[in-house]
Amino acid sequence: MGTNAMSFRWRAIRVICLRELRSLFMGLGIYIVTTLVLLACAAGVLSFVGAVSDAGLRTSAEPLLGDFVYAIGALTLYIGILATIAVSRERDRGTLEVLFYGPVDSTSYVMAKFLEHLAAFAIVMVVTLAAFGIISAITGLIFTGGLVRAGILSLFFASTAISFGIFLSSITLKMRNSVVLFILIMVGLGLFSLLEAYLGLMLGEASAFVEYGRVVVGLIGRVLNWISPIAYYRRGIEAARIGDLRMLVISVLSPIIYTSGLLWLAAATFTKKGVRAQ
Amino acid sequence: MALQPWHGRWRLHYPVGEPGRVDCPVAIVGGMVVIETRGLTKEYGKTTAVRDLDLHVEKGEIYGFLGPNGAGKTTTIMMILGLVKPTRGEALIFGSRLDRDYFGLKRRIGVVAEVQRVYEDMTAWEYLNFFGQLYGVPDIKTRAADLLSRLDLYDRRNELLSNYSKGMLQKVNIARALIHDPELLILDEPVSSLDPYGIKEVRDLIMEEHRRGKTIFISSHLLSEVERTCNRVGILDQGTLVAEDTMQSLREKLASEIRLLLEVDAARPEIIEAIRRLPFVKSVEVEDNRVNISTNPDADYRLDVSRAVSEAGGTVMGLSRQEMSLEDAFITITEKHVSQFARKEA
């Protein structure tokens, strides 16, 4: 691939990314979801403040971090769904095909979509950080460097979710199918976490069947915890807090590897399946 | 017209334009093949959409790609554009495979699809500017303004495309395909959703672009439109190219007879009898003062008919030669192919 091709590809990425970003921020969806997430976080912080005043004293090194991580989780899920919808919707409407009439190839399109959603997430994350700064100023709860570190690390976590969404939409072809698949996987993971927690909370003697289930769920949970991007995110925040450089590097590198692999698979699937709506 | 070697075979080569109509403005430059397919085949399971297609479109010509619904025209276009992978064979654009110089070749092509697909959250102005940036057009605003003016859309350039009618969207798509001034225009049913004024505007635009040296590949159902515009046509039926020739040559090959429409001052029996006696006349039908004459297709017999009428004491008020239309040729070719195919299957 010569420099000329690289410059055409970069042009395609830049032009498509900017158009899509503009289109995303011209819509209401992102503002509504961000507002709802921030309101939910404000309610969580208020409940914490209420608990402090009820108990008289409560200690926490990072009083806002938990709510911030929940906010990041919700926003990442939203951006992941947006990435899933954005690609398959464009295929359904046929505008994807029109783009590919011109100097746009699978790699440039996938990269443009990825960067668009990552940029959107970064903007929303900075707004969320700013909102937590305001909450901190109002409530007097300390705004720590941990929040900023969690914000920066969330970019890697979000990049995995976005590339996963783009990959799903490249294999499913239809918008409805890709969104349903994305939500099913997320709900499945959520249900698994609930099951894991339920089995862990069961006290007293359990039947052999429950014991067997507990072992199996425990094993799956360990594997998921090892490969899950959110687990890497949590570990990254902890590693940054305690200064564990090795764990921090692993927590950053893993999402980068996931993201690269998923984007490569998405581009390869586009090339193989084509860009036409079936 | 001469026989020339071509990829190990012989084919008829037309060094200058032999258009469907005599008023075709530009001669084909000749030589350079802009689109070429070699044994292009696409199979979907057991169904063959396109079968061993050998197509060639030369620089500077307007090529009409015809075929009934489901003949494989759009699949062929998609394979040429690299959007559908062929099962066998290859397509070359400007002599190169698309994967050898993807971006360079795509910048030399403008495509208008059969169905209008646009970003409905954009205005026509934004839409053209977006594609102009994508192609790296140096002076996008001037180019966009020029194209919108030529297609009578300039005054509505700031309206959202979601408010545009089908015909207007088609015009925007044509402007989009032309924004980067491509050398090759591929048009899939370019005028199907346009009113007569729109058809004329688009036809004028196509002819103007042709005069500027562009090669134009039109896939269309509107045979009369193709007949008016194209130099050469290829007829695709059931995925197979059943004919590829100039309009004139197709007519000559397919016509089993030529009809002459004669108008005389009075269709007296001796005049009709004189016409019937002519050796090349196959049949004569009389209606008032108008006489329909079927002749052998080997020559133009208007002079002989005119002389026979004069010698029988009549006066010729009008005499014209009715040529086979593209529609007639299309039906003849595809019906012949269907019956051959059915015989082969049997």
What characteristics describe this protein?
heterodimer, A: 278 residues, mainly alpha, 10 helices, 86% helix, globular, B: 346 residues, alpha/beta, Rossmann fold, Alpha-Beta Plaits, 2 domains, six-stranded mixed β-sheet, 11 helices
Helix/strand order of chain B: EEEEEHEEHEHHHEHEHEEHEHEEHEH
Oligomeric category? heterodimer
CATH structural class of the largest domain in chain B: Alpha Beta
Helical residue percent band of chain B = 25-40%
| Tally of helical runs of chain A | 10
Termini gap of chain B = 38 Å
Radius of gyration of chain A, in Å, reads: 21 Å
Percentage of residues in helical conformation of chain A? over 70%
CATH homolog superfamily of the largest domain in chain B: P-loop containing nucleotide triphosphate hydrolases
CATH topology grouping of the largest domain in chain B: Rossmann fold
Number of structural units classed as domains of chain A:
1
Task: Describe, in short, the structure shown.
The complex is a heterodimer of chains A (278) and B (346). Chain A is built from 10 helices and no strands.
Structure commentary:
The complex is a heterodimer of chains A (about 280) and B (about 350). Chain A is an all-alpha fold and about 280 residues long. Helices cover about 85% and strands about 0% of the residues of chain A. Chain A contains ten helices and no strands. Chain A has helices at about 5-25, 30-55, 65-95, 95-100, 105-140, 145-170, 175-200, 210-225, 230-240, 245-275. The longest helix of chain A is centred in the middle third of the chain and has 34 residues, at about 105-140. Chain A is globular. The mean pLDDT of chain A is about 85. Chain B has two domains: about 5-110 and about 180-250, Rossmann fold, CATH 3.40.50; about 255-320, Alpha-Beta Plaits, CATH 3.30.70. Helices cover about 35% and strands about 30% of the residues of chain B. Residues about 1-30 of chain B have low confidence and may be disordered. With about 350 residues, chain B is of the alpha/beta class. The interface of A and B includes residues 15, 23, 103, 104 and 105 of A.
